[in-house]
Specification:
Blueprint lengths: L3 H13 L8 H9 L6 E5 L10 H15 L6 E4 L9 H11 L7 E4 L5 H14 L5 E3 L3 H14 L4 E3 L4 H7 L19 H4 L2 H8 L10
Parallel strand pairs: 1-2, 1-4, 2-3, 4-5
């Protein structure tokens, strides 16, 4: 039986077809290699249920770890608060990345974002505060596609997109790291579904809840 992540990324490949993602992840990766190493990659979070990482989280963390361990990126910002579950998404991803060989001194945490646009925006300012100039987003190809317009028009520093390569993940997805998630647990947690209306959440996904700063 194929590993679950392999089935997941194979499904992405089938759904993406030949025309949905232009330029292709392969072409974007080749472009990125011409500008490596990146000072930092930004990895948006996914909810964690307290038992195991989800398929999207697994793909993103493995890909980020691959980019760090290969020297394509020097540092990583994992981004995401406790949004739908009482676990801080960024901290959970960091715990998994450490198990995959990423040194803790290369990991930064952004734990306030509730939406993908906020993942990028908040992490961008963390990157700038550290003096990082070469910034990239490392995620799945669908999320990268959705974020390209936002990153192209909102930031002074250019942001490169390095969506994961299906063939590469197929070769490294047989990993089963074990973490203790307790350090990422938030007491007295309330889900965003309880604290925000559907309209407010919809605005958040479009970046409308962000108070943009001038650069």
């Amino acid at each position: 039986m194929k590993p679950i992540l392999t089935l997941f990324i194979s499904s992405i490949l089938l759904l993406s077809g030949c025309s949905l993602f232009r330029p292709s992840p392969e072409r974007l990766f080749k472009r990125a290699l011409k500008n490596e190493p990146f000072d930092v990659i930004i990895v948006p979070g996914c909810p964690y249920d307290g038992k195991d990482w989800s398929l999207p989280m697994k793909g993103r963390v493995i890909w980020a770890s691959y980019l760090i361990n290969k020297g394509i990126a020097k540092n990583v910002i994992f981004s995401g608060g406790s949004v739908y579950t009482p676990y801080v998404e960024a901290k959970i991803m960091a715990l998994y990345a450490e198990q995959l060989g990423v040194s803790p001194d290369k990991i930064l945490i952004e734990d306030k974002a509730e939406h993908t646009t906020e993942n990028i925006y908040n992490s961008y300012w963390i990157a700038k505060s550290k003096g990082f100039k070469k910034i990239a987003v490392a995620s799945d190809q669908f999320q990268s596609r959705l974020l390209m317009g936002f990153t192209n028009r909102r930031f002074k520093l250019p942001i490169t997109h390095i969506p994961f390569l299906v063939d590469t993940l197929k070769t490294i997805d047989k990993v089963h790291p074990v973490i203790n998630p307790q350090s990422a647990y938030v007491d007295n947690f309330k889900s965003i579904v309880e604290t925000q209306s559907k309209w407010h959440r919809f605005r958040g996904t479009r970046g409308k809840n962000i108070k943009f700063q001038e650069e």
